[in-house]
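Thread: NAP complex, take 2
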Amino acid sequence: MTHRLAIVGVGMMGEALARGLLEAGWSPAEVVVTDAVSSRADDVAKILGCAKASDAKDAAAQASGVLLAVKPQDARSALEELAGSIGAGGLVSIVAGMRTSAIEDALGRDASVVRAMPNTPARVGKGVTALAAGSNANDATRELADAVFSAVGPVVWLDESKLDAVTALSGSGPAYVFLVAEAMVDAGVALGLPRDVAETLTYATLEGSSVMLRTTGEVPAVLRAQVTSPGGTTAAAVSVLEAKAVRAAFIEALRAAHDRSVELGS
Ligand SMILES: NC(=O)c1ccc[n+]([C@@H]2O[C@H](COP(=O)([O-])OP(=O)(O)OC[C@H]3O[C@@H](n4cnc5c(N)ncnc54)[C@H](OP(=O)(O)O)[C@@H]3O)[C@@H](O)[C@H]2O)c1
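Output below.
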């Protein structure tokens, strides 16, 4: 088969990426899945109509390229299983913190490897992914990585040294947005709104603001100024947020996430 992807580990991310590929027009015959929990691979294979392999080695043998989507603590043993079985499409890894050099060490120095940092909105086809090529990454692996992650959102290629910053920004980013959402809902309830109404208002506000950021071509400061009339309600709220140093807190928080990512990867 010229073009078939083995997905090793169909947990939350592996399954989301498999779904994204099928929704983007790949045929089920172009995907084979495997998981340490055999029943999980059975379920995903059945839902998606794709093949299931008994283990990582078997999956790689049936495919031209591999997507490694296991947890960091399972990555070494999965790579040991895969060594010697990777096809011409090479290996794309989403394992957080595992450097391409470590993957090359495990698979063999000439292995063609791309490392990806996606985020959880990939589950709803709205992810964003940074990709970094290993030192021997060939065109086939780069194209495979582009195809897999473009199916669930925009893709940016960066030097691997930038992936700790990406982890801090978009990898962990959904958690910051969910925290803001929680706080806005609670504040709405404190002001007397029913919880379901506060939720509807908050979620639609976040979604609408996000679409404006992507579509108007304006930077956030301009869009914020447009809702902030002199002496008005928004100005009153924003002056409290600035006094509480929310902007500085975000900068410090992302720095902490970046430093933790460096620490975990070393
Ligand atoms: N969630 C995110 O936002 C995010 C973002 C970027 C990157 N990532 C990375 O994505 C990876 C997967 O995360 P996840 O949340 O999808 O994890 P997950 O839900 O735990 O899925 C991983 C699956 O792989 C299975 N597995 C373990 N060893 C295996 C092996 N040797 N062969 C085949 N299957 C194996 C696991 O089985 P068991 O249940 O038996 O362990 C599990 O079902 C992680 O490395 C994470 O760092 C996640």
